Fold:
Amino acid sequence: MTEPQSVSKTTASISKLKNGKPAGDEDVFPDLVKCLPPSALQTLQKLLQLYWETKKIRDECRNSIVLQLHKKSSVTEPENYCGASLLTVVCKVLERIIAYRLRTDTERTVRENNPA
Structure:
């Protein structure tokens, strides 16, 4: 999991962001990131690669804004609420890249250790 992240994988992670979702505390909406020109995507990819290589991420990725959303029925009952976390868009992309890499590396390891 040490090889550089490709721009195509970064783009794939960005494309999986949901449209119309609220921005995190940096006020960058997922819809905006999906419209980045290639030069900006390369810059974002370099930033994500820096996080990967140094194993250090911004404090904003360690915290999120948590909202309590009312689901149903009485507003006085705690079980009628659910939590929603707002992460920054960059952190969401990084999270997807990490999840993808973990999944593919785990699948490869399982295949190698369990021949058919």
Observations:
- The chain has one domain: 7-113.
